[in-house]
Amino acid sequence: HVQLVESGGGSVQAGGSLKLSCVASGYTYSSNCMAWFRQVPGKEREGVAAIHVGVGRTYVADSVKGRFTSSQDSAKNTVFLQMNDLKPEDTATYYCATDSVGAFDCYSGSWAARTFHYWGQGTRVTVS
């Protein structure tokens, strides 16, 4: 079965950096879109970044552009979310998600939370 395991969350001061990891297993890694979402209580999940692991192209939401980047280590079936210059408003639980989204839709950001059927357990990021 599909399994996504996130790690790398924690507490950091404003201006600091964190790198989240998401290890995937149980499906054909190279054909999927891997997306990163974040959620705070009472709000909908917000998509912040994605990478189509087959073509390697990425998407970053305007709200985090210039600070967050997505990358991968395909040999380890792992995607990363590098978060720099963190702000208190970045405080949230971060999730990775995957599904067989087409490459163009993936790296153009043409998706939403409902697009993805497979989710990790989330990792908490707190910025103070």
Main attributes of the structure:
7-stranded mixed β-sheet, 4-stranded antiparallel β-sheet, 47% strand, mainly beta, 128 residues, 1 helix
Please write out the topology.
Layout: E1 3-7, E2 10-12, E3 18-25, E4 33-39, E5 46-52, E6 58-60, E7 68-73, E8 78-83, E9 92-99, H1 103-107, E10 118-119, E11 123-127
Parallel strand pairs: 2-11
Antiparallel strand pairs: 1-3, 3-8, 4-5, 4-9, 5-6, 7-8, 9-10, 9-11
Q: What does this protein structure show overall?
A:
- The protein is mainly β and 128 residues long.
- The protein is built from one helix and eleven strands, in the order βββββββββαββ.
- Strands 2, 4, 5, 6, 9, 10 and 11 form a seven-stranded mixed β-sheet that branches.
- It is globular and about 40 Å long.
- The model has no long low-confidence stretch (mean pLDDT 95).
